[in-house]
Structures are given as structure tokens and as C-alpha cells.
Design a protein that fits this description.
InterPro entries: PAZ_dom, PAZ_dom_sf, Piwi, RNaseH-like_sf, RNaseH_sf. One of its GO terms (molecular function) is RNA binding. Pfam families: PAZ, Piwi. By secondary structure, the chain is an alpha+beta fold. Among the domains are: 118 residues, no CATH class; 101 residues, no CATH class; 124 residues, paz domain (Beta Complex), CATH 2.170.260; 152 residues, Rossmann fold (3-Layer(aba) Sandwich); 178 residues, Nucleotidyltransferase, domain 5, CATH 3.30.420. It contains 23 helices and 37 strands. Strands 1, 2, 23, 29, 30, 31, 32, 33, 34, 35, 36 and 37 form a 12-stranded mixed β-sheet that branches. Strands 3, 10, 11, 12, 13, 14 and 22 form a 7-stranded antiparallel β-sheet that branches. Strands 4, 5, 6, 7, 8 and 9 form a 6-stranded antiparallel β-sheet that branches. Strand 27, helix 16 and strand 28 form a beta-alpha-beta unit. The chain is globular and about 85 Å long. It starts with 125 loop residues before the first strand and ends in a 20-residue tail after the last helix. The relative contact order is 0.09.
Length: 1014
């Protein structure tokens, strides 16, 4: 059956759906025939020449050229058994690939079809914001002036209003015992509160009035209620109420006044008053009594549009769907209030999140996550004889972690209620036995369901599902469960295959993004007519703000071409980047026969010539070609040791680099990196089979030197081996640039440590950086060993100046770029980290003049977006020019600015947000903005400027590499390519390295002076 939302063809019969654009609604293919289109998209049906027959076709199936979005063809499905996959409709003539079929993942389902049709562009309104309306005392003057539009709206509020604050507690009463209910489930608490409001009109009056006058929030960890009226203390009881655990019980709600809140301009950013202001803005969607709750799903500051919605059609991801929504957050302005009217801004932005598809059968949900498609009736029937092995149970456990489910109505006496996932039980319904008081004997789950509900369990070999609460040991057959009917946001990363499908849906150019914001703010969320805001005397002017900006000039670097010229091409062409002769010999290791060297000779030559052309002397042939079989993984260390011994015979001054050709496998990546870098100090470059194929194809089309893939690999090797991208012409006083980052384990991992990294330059040109890495306590945000780590960076800077410049120098200026902290954590940065930095400086510079310190926080995770209203370049689509800086109008701190240093490639550029927490150097705004912009041009892995200063980017890479190193210390600790480990059930065997985790992330001494993390 074809999926009408996304095109694509279907499983057993032929046929494939087309793209999702301008045409008919149907989408299923015939028994051996053609396909239809998407909901609005015309399919390019295959007609008679469509897919293969029921059980005969090996062919892939035809496909018409017909009506996708822009001449995109619908795809033909494949046959039932061992037939080729069909292709879905593309976007502009492109065909989607076919998904796997019934037998061994090889049979025909069609592709998923083309993208959702472009949404109409709204003519949104813009109001110019003058400097006087939000003055700033930290403004630069350099650069070309321009005007930009920001996704902010003016916010007005009554500074004289007093809002009463209450503590709300819920209790469950059973047999004269009172048990306090945890408020961690905010959604359940909110629903429970409003059910009390609706049932107690005598106390609350008309519920339609109260929903406008009550907010539910969590302030300082307590459940709180804010309102416009004084209630005093109120105790309400509901008999035979459905409790938080889904069982019938008596619930008591107690409300107690705790104080008042006034929304006044204050110097603190994260205070109770502005939290309440944010709740006022989103309250209408949060309240189930209001009509907006039926079309909007609210999570904190994000308002997601519930399907169906013709303008914001969700992206179908099988067991998941991606919804578009509106992010809304109040920000303080610097302008003083006028009378009783306070001034601020509301930051509106587009939000995207993946949600579990409501009502999806749990087995179907797992099947789609594994294969990319749902099972048909025949496949489901065959599951009667199958179970799951340990690996599959672990996958299911990870997939269902944190999921709210619902029991199906399998019998009249089987209560259809909500259930929270707890665990996957290793035993099947037949094997799991328990003492049943009702039946007076020991029974299996299968026997219990037959006797109690007259229901025959179908999948008797499948694992059971344990539901909350954990202590009650409630287990259910997997077939009686489905995903809850209530929307649930996915709290972890999507599987890689599904994540790749979201890029086009989430990446929108600036004008389309601002049009979407306008549509949601005015139409779906209707902020112009918000009754809650009106009741609390809060008003939003739904016009985007136009503000002034400047475009900084790119730095002048010591290249044969200026960076202005280099930005127009995709790779650096300057030879002799090393500045001194470097001889390298590549040593090739092929894992699991993923490539044959004789067939990939063109790819190898492209890589070698790319390096040679740019200043590295590389022997044309590898020193050796070694095969490694992962079935003998215990031999990997011996293999690396033998290659290191062999390299000793390659001559003096030769730097060996192991090139690893590998399948896309996380164990291979982490194991090679761990053994090479932790034990033997060997440089390595991992190249996946997919990348080898790209390299081979590019070399075949245009010759070795035209390969962009080869150039990108060169940049990584260049950095690892001591090369540099370029240097600034102007050399400042000895300056140490420090980048700091901390990464944390994935959700659900309760054992792995957090990883902290300090990266600093060891030359005066800020082109060579080295890292100091530590593992620290689980989810600790502050760097625990900051003093020791910073001291090490000072030592390395002094040694590096001797090595590269012939004179030992100590830094006279230190500029620290700290990443990964929010405004609410600034005080902690100053208290815990900056104080440790100060002590390290005092120790190292005892008796001599101390350097001046500047501390800058860099944020990427924010929702401020701009578009250049003067940009008419169709390719740029309104994105900011590289070097655009905004340091006034919308800032709320004394020293704060936005800088977009990168060139917009896809979607809307995200500027970086800089906060200056300390500045003993007394830099001007121009100096700090120019310095930050210049450092974005020195990232060794990219020929164009990146979005954050190079030291911060290197700290990211060092943290992720350390995450792989930690996992490599025990092969029961696998992590993905994004540096995130698997859930805690895989971490138990890592206890032996949890005692001294930092030993698992510190590289071999010989690699410490290098940029091994690139």
C-alpha cells in the first residue's frame, strides 16, 4: 500500500507512489501495475509497465515521468520475493530509492517519494527599531553598514501588576495513607489540575474565566500556581479519580499561597518574573479548557501544530512524524519602562521535533525502526513462530525508553488505559510464570490471559513488556500495547537513516522561515487575540523588527589568494601549506574487504596527488596493504603494533599515517582510534566505504585534482601532521586563545562520565592547537580539573613558542572562549571555572607580570535568526553575509553581540551569540568582534570560515574523540559517530574503567603536541 503523505510505492504488489506535490490523492499500486500520487502530488504511475508481479518479478518496476513537483517521476515498486526495489518520486526529476522488501530486505517497496510541496509565502510586516528604543553601550563601528530583519517582536507588559503565587501539591489516598505524587510528569500534573478546576465550579467559578487567569509552572523545582486573584489555602478531594499510575484512587489537591510576583525590569536575566511572563505567552495553548489546545501541542516554550494542518503538513517518518511549531520566548530589553509599561521582546522561531506516531502498534513501530517500513499482514502472521535475541531486545529497550503506551481493548474486562514503559523482559509469555491469587495456582502469562480475558496470546515467543511502576512487576504481551494516543516528543536523536530524511523539511531559507513564523504567530497561535495575555495585560506587536548591522571585512591571510577569493571556491588550492618540507608515507589497512585496492587505484591516486599538490611529500604507493577481519578483533592491537614497527624502517624524518578503509561501523572507528592514539601514538585517517566510492567516482569524472572529497581528506591529514591553513598578516602581542567545551552522556546512560576539553594554541599565529582532555563526574557541567588543565595549556604555549619561533614566550593576553553554558549558568562559570583559571595563572606567573584575562561565552543553541533585507542574491536567499555583526537594538547585556561568520549553504544561517563575562584587556567592541571573526577563518578542516571560533570547534572535536576513546577502553561501551554512547544496559561491563575514567581519554605522550582530534 502506498503512503499518501510521502509518495512511494508499496510492498507485495508492484506500483509506487509519486512525489508530494500537485495532483491526486490516491497512492496504492495495483497487483502488478502502476502507482498513484501523494495527497497533493501527482504520481508518475507505472501503469501496466509498473512493478513486478506477485511472486515472479526480479525487475525493479517501471515508473512514469509524470507529475511530481517539477517533472519528478513516480517510482515503480518491485516484486514480492527477491525483486528489485522501486523508486519514489523525486523533487526535480530525481527518483527516491526503494525500501527493502519482504524477504531479506530485498524485495520491492517503493521509495518514500518527493518532499512536501513548498508552502505559500506570506507578506509579513516589518517595523524599524531605532537605536534609542533599546540603547547599547557596547557598539563597534568597523565594517559596511546594512539593515537586517530579526525574528523578534515588541513586547509590552504592566510593571505595576502583582501576580499571586501558590504552591500546588497532589496526594493519593489509599487505606487512610497519604502519598505525595511526584511532579516530574508536568503534563500529567497539568491535566490533573485542570480536571479539578472543571469539577469544582463552586470554588473556581466559570472555567472559561479561570483558564485565562491561572498559570501552571515549575519555579525553583516546586510546582506552582500563579493567578490574578488571592485564593488563600484550598484543599480539594476527588473520589474514584484516575491516579497518576492509571489506577482508580482518591486524589487530593492542596493549594497554598506563597507570595507575589511583579514583572519589573531587573538586571538578572533568569528570574521568576520573566518565567511567568513566558508562561503567560504560551498559556492559552497549554490549557485543555481553551479551544487552542485541540490544534496546538505545547511543550515549555514550543507550540507544535497538531496534524492535520494544510499549511504545516507533518513529515511522515513511519513510526515517527516530524511536526513544525513555533518557539516563543520573552527577552528583556535595555530600554527603561515608560510609566507602567515595560519593554521587552518576544523571540519567535520555527521549531521542529520528532514525535512518536500516535496509536502505532509496538511491533510495527519496532519493525519500521529496523527496516524502514511497516510489516504487511503476511509478515505479521509469520511472527507467530519468532522471538527476539538479546541484541534485538536491547534495541527494543532503547527504542521504547521513556515511551507512554496504551493498552489495546482485547476484551470487555481488559481496561484500556495508559501505561509507561519500564523494561523489556527476557522471558516470553509462555516462559514467564507467576503465582496468581485469582486462579489459585502458578500460571504463565499465556495461561493467565486465556483464563482471565478469554484471549489467546499470538506471539508466544516474543519478549514481554514491563510497565511502570517498577516495584509492581506488571508485565504485558507486546501485542496488546500500542503507542499512546497523546502526542509524545522523541527525547533522543532519530536513527541516522530517518534523520537524513528530515534535512529538507527542516532547512528553509530565511524568507520562507520568517513567513512560517508569521503564519503560526498570527493564524495558528493567534497572538493578536490571546485572551490570557489580555487578562494579564501583556501585548505583542506582531511585526518583525528591522535593525542595523555591520559586515566586517575578512582577515588578510598569508596565502597566495585572499580569503575573499578563497571563499568563492570549495577548497584551498595554496601549495606548501606546511611552510616546511614534510614527508609522509601512507599505510593502508582494509577492514572486512570493504574495498579492493586494485579497483580503487584512481581514488588512491586522487588522494595522494591532492596531498602532494598542497605541500605534503607523499609516496605514490602505500607502504603496505593489510587486510583486517573484525571476526578476529582481538588481533587489532597486534596489527597496529606491527605497522608501527614496520614504519621504523621507512627512513628518518618520515611520518607514518595509517589510512583505514572501513565499513560504516562504530566499533571499527572507535577501536582503531583508541588503539592508535591511546596506546601507540599513531596518526590515522578513517575513510568509510561510502567515501571511497565518492572518491573513485569523482576521480573518474574529472581527474584526480578535481576531487572535492580528496581535498577535504587532505585538510584533515594536514592538520594531524602539523600543517596549517594560513596566518594573519598582523601579529599581536603573545596571545593564548583557549577553547573550552564539556559534553555529557546520552539520555538513559547513568554510568559514563562527562568529558571536558581545553584546547589552546601553541604558536603565536594561532594556527596550531593542542588539547587537554579529562573525564569527570557524570553530567557535571563545571570543569572539575580546570586549574590543572589550564596550567598545562600555559606550559604548552611556552614550549610551543620555543619550537616554532625560537624564543620561549609567556602569553601577555589570554582570551577564553567557553561553549555550552546558558545565561543561568554564567554565575557558576565565574565562581567555579574563572576562579580556578585565576589560581592557575597566579601559580604559573608567580613573581612575574601576569597576563590580562578575557572570558567570552559562545552560544550556538539559541533561536535568534536574521535575514538580510538588502540581499537579492537568489543563491544566498537572504542569508547574512559572512562577517555580519549585530551588537545593539536587541541585546540585553552590557557586553553582548551576534556574529554570523559563516556563509549560508542550506536553510537559514544561525549566528553565534557572544557574551563577554570578564574583560581585563579592556577590548573595544570592534577588537573583540574582529578577533572572534578572524578566528573563525583558522579552522584547519575547512577552507571557508566556520560558525564559531576555531578554538571552540577544536574543543568540540577533542570531546567527541575522547568519547570514542572512553568507549574503546571497553568494547562493551560502543558509541555512535556523533560521540554519544548507547544506553546504560550496555555500560555495566565498563565498571572497571569508571574508577579512573580520565586514563581512558588521555592520548599517548607523542601525540599530545599534535592536532590528533581533527
Amino acid at each position: 500500500m502506498s503512503n499518501w503523505k510521502g509518495g512511494g510505492g508499496g510492498g507485495r504488489s508492484g506500483g509506487g507512489g509519486g512525489g508530494y506535490s500537485q495532483g491526486g490523492r490516491s497512492g496504492s499500486g495495483g497487483y502488478g501495475g502502476g502507482g498513484g500520487g501523494g495527497r497533493q502530488g501527482g504520481g508518475g504511475g507505472g501503469g501496466r509497465g509498473g512493478g513486478g508481479g506477485y511472486d515472479s518479478g526480479r525487475s525493479g518496476g517501471g515508473g512514469g515521468r509524470g507529475g511530481g513537483f517539477d517533472r519528478s517521476g513516480g517510482g515503480g515498486g518491485g516484486g514480492y520475493d527477491r525483486s528489485g526495489g522501486g523508486g519514489g518520486g523525486g523533487f526535480r526529476g530525481g527518483g527516491g530509492g526503494g525500501s527493502g522488501g519482504y524477504d531479506s530486505g530485498r524485495s520491492g517497496g517503493g521509495g518514500r517519494g518527493g518532499p512536501v510541496a513548498p508552502r505559500p509565502m506570506r507578506n509579513f510586516q516589518v517595523a524599524k527599531l531605532s537605536e534609542a528604543e533599546n540603547p547599547s553601550n557596547f557598539k563597534g563601528a568597523l565594517g559596511r553598514r546594512t539593515d537586517v530583519v530579526v525574528n523578534y517582536f515588541k513586547l509590552k507588559f504592566n510593571t505595576k501588576m502583582h501576580i499571586f503565587k501558590y504552591r500546588v501539591d497532589f496526594f493519593q489516598q489509599k487505606e487512610d495513607k497519604r502519598k505525595e505524587i511526584s511532579t516530574t510528569n508536568k503534563m500529567a500534573l497539568r491535566e490533573k489540575f485542570w480536571s479539578f478546576v472543571s469539577a469544582n465550579e463552586a470554588y473556581f467559578g466559570d472555567e472559561t474565566i479561570w483558564f485565562m487567569m491561572i498559570l501552571i509552572c515549575v519555579i525553583l523545582g516546586k510546582s506552582c500556581l500563579s493567578s490574578l486573584e488571592l485564593l488563600g489555602k484550598l484543599r480539594l478531594k476527588r473520589m474514584k479519580d484516575e491516579g497518576f499510575d492509571g489506577n482508580m484512587t482518591t486524589t487530593v489537591m492542596v493549594i497554598k499561597a506563597t507570595g507575589t510576583i511583579s514583572i519589573k525590569p531587573q538586571e538578572t536575566y533568569e528570574d521568576d518574573a520573566f518565567r511567568v511572563l513566558n508562561l503567560i505567552i504560551t498559556q492559552q495553548a497549554r490549557c485543555p479548557i481553551g479551544a487552542l489546545d485541540r490544534t496546538i501541542h505545547c511543550e515549555v516554550s514550543r507550540l507544535y501544530i497538531k496534524p492535520p494542518n494544510s499549511y504545516h503538513e507533518p513529515l511522515d517518518l513511519g513510526g515517527f512524524e516530524m511536526l513544525r511549531g513555533l518557539y516563543a520566548f520573552a527577552k528583556r530589553g535595555l530600554a527603561p519602562p515608560k510609566g507602567n509599561v515595560g519593554n521587552g521582546f518576544v523571540n519567535f522561531d520555527v521549531a521542529h521535533s520528532a514525535f512518536y506516531k500516535v496509536g502505532c502498534d509496538i511491533l510495527q513501530f519496532y519493525a519500521f525502526a529496523k527496516t524502514g517500513r511497516f510489516m504487511n499482514a503476511s509478515e505479521i502472521e509469520r511472527l507467530n513462530d519468532y522471538g527476539m535475541n538479546q541484541s534485538q531486545r536491547n534495541e527494543l529497550r532503547t527504542l521504547l525508553s521513556g515511551l507512554k503506551m496504551k493498552k489495546k481493548r482485547i476484551a470487555e474486562n481488559f481496561v484500556e488505559s495508559e501505561a509507561s514503559f519500564c523494561d523489556v523482559v527476557d522471558k516470553s509469555p509462555d516462559a514467564y510464570k507467576f503465582e496468581c491469587e485469582e486462579l489459585g495456582r502458578t500460571v504463565s502469562v499465556t495461561e493467565y490471559y486465556a483464563a482471565k480475558y478469554n484471549y489467546q496470546v499470538k506471539f508466544r515467543s516474543m519478549p514481554l513488556i514491563k510497565i511502570m511502576p517498577r516495584e509492581r512487576n506488571l508485565v504485558l504481551p507486546i501485542e496488546v500495547l500500542k503507542v499512546s494516543d497523546k502526542l509524545q516528543r522523541l527525547r533522543r536523536k532519530l536513527p541516522d537513516a530517518l534523520q537524513a530524511m528530515t534535512n529538507q523539511y527542516t532547512s528553509t531559507p530565511p524568507r520562507q522561515r520568517f513567513s512560517d513564523i508569521d503564519q503560526m504567530a498570527r493564524v495558528e497561535c493567534n497572538f493578536d487575540q490571546n485572551p490570557v495575555m489580555r487578562a494579564f495585560e501583556v501585548a505583542i506587536n506582531t511585526e518583525f523588527l528591522e535593525i542595523g548591522a555591520r559586515v566586517l571585512n575578512p582577515p588578510r591571510c598569508e596565502f597566495s589568494k585572499s580569503f575573499r577569493d578563497i571563499m568563492g571556491i570549495k577548497a584551498v588550492e595554496k601549495p606548501n601549506l606546511f611552510g616546511r618540507p614534510v614527508n609522509i608515507i601512507f599505510d593502508l589497512v582494509i577492514v572486512d574487504g570493504c574495498i579492493r585496492f586494485d579497483r580503487y587505484r584512481a581514488a588512491w591516486e586522487a588522494l595522494v596527488q591532492s596531498c602532494s599538490h598542497r605541500g605534503i611529500t607523499v609516496h605514490p604507493d602505500p607502504a603496505g596493504v593489510t587486510e583486517f577481519d573484525t571476526r578476529h578483533k582481538d588481533q587489532l592491537a597486534n596489527l597496529i603494533a606491527s605497522r608501527r614497527e614496520a614504519s621504523k624502517n621507512w627512513g628518518q624524518g618520515v611520518m607514518p599515517v595509517i589510512i583505514v578503509a572501513m565499513p560504516d561501523n562504530r566499533w571499527i572507528y572507535q577501536s582503531f582510534k583508541g588503539i592508535c592514539e591511546l596506546r601507540f601514538g599513531m596518526r590515522s585517517q578513517m575513510i568509510s566505504q561510502k567515501t571511497w566510492n565518492k572518491l573513485q567516482n569523482e576521480a573518474g569524472r574529472g581527474g584526480p585534482m578535481s576531487s572535492a572529497v580528496a581535498r577535504n581528506i587532505f585538510l584533515k591529514i594536514n592538520a594531524k601532521c602539523g600543517g596549517k591553513m594560513g596566518t594573519f598578516v598582523k601579529k599581536e602581542a603573545p596571545t593564548l586563545f583557549i577553547g573550552i567545551d564539556v559534553t555529557h552522556p546520552a539520555p538513559g546512560d547513568t554510568l559514563s562520565p562527562s568529558i571536558s576539553a581545553l584546547v589552546g594554541n601553541i604558536d603565536l599565529n594561532a594556527t596550531r592547537f593542542t588539547a587537554t582532555v579529562r573525564a569527570q563526574h557524570h553530567r557535571t557541567e563545571w570543569i572539575e580539573d580546570m586549574g590543572e588543565m589550564f596550567y598545562e595549556r600555559l606550559v604548552h604555549f611556552q614550549k610551543g613558542s620555543k619550537l616554532f619561533h625560537g624564543t620561549e614566550l609567556r602569553p601577555s593576553k589570554i582570551i577564553v572562549f567557553r561553549d555550552g553554558v546558558s545565561e543561568s549558568q554564567f554565575e557558576g562559570v565565574m565562581e567555579f571555572e574563572v576562579s580556578s583559571i585565576r589560581r592557575a595563572i597566579d601559580k604559573y606567573f608567580e613573581g612575574v607580570q601576569k597576563p590580562r584575562l578575557t572570558v567570552v561565552v559562545v552560544q550556538k543553541r539559541h533561536n535568534t535568526r536574521f535575514f538580510d533585507k538588502n540581499d537579492n542574491d537568489e543563491k544566498n536567499k537572504g542569508n547574512l553575509q559572512p562577517g555580519t555583526v549585530i551588537d545593539g537594538h536587541i541585546t540585553s547585556y552590557s557586553k553582548e553581540f551576534y556574529l554570523c561568520s559563516q556563509k549560508g549553504m542550506l536553510g537559514t544561517s544561525r549566528p553565534s551569540h557572544y557574551f563577554i563575562l570578564m574583560d581585563e584587556n579592556n577590548f573595544t567592541a570592534d577588537e573583540l568582534e574582529t578577533c572572534s571573526n578572524n578566528l573563525c577563518y583558522l579552522f584547519a578542516r575547512a577552507p571557508m570560515p566556520v560558525s564559531i571560533p576555531a578554538p571552540v570547534y577544536y574543543a568540540h572535536l577533542a570531546c567527541f574523540r575522547a568519547r570514542h576513546h572512553y568507549a574503546a577502553a571497553d568494547d562493551e561501551l560502543p558509541v555512535g559517530k556523533n560521540g554519544q554512547p548507547l544506553p546504560k544496559d550496555k555500560l555495566q561491563s565498563g565498571d572497571k574503567i569508571l574508577q579512573q575514567p580520565s586514563e581512558a581519554v588521555i592520548v599517548e605522550q607523542g601525540l599530545k603536541p599534535s592536532m590528533y582530534f581533527c
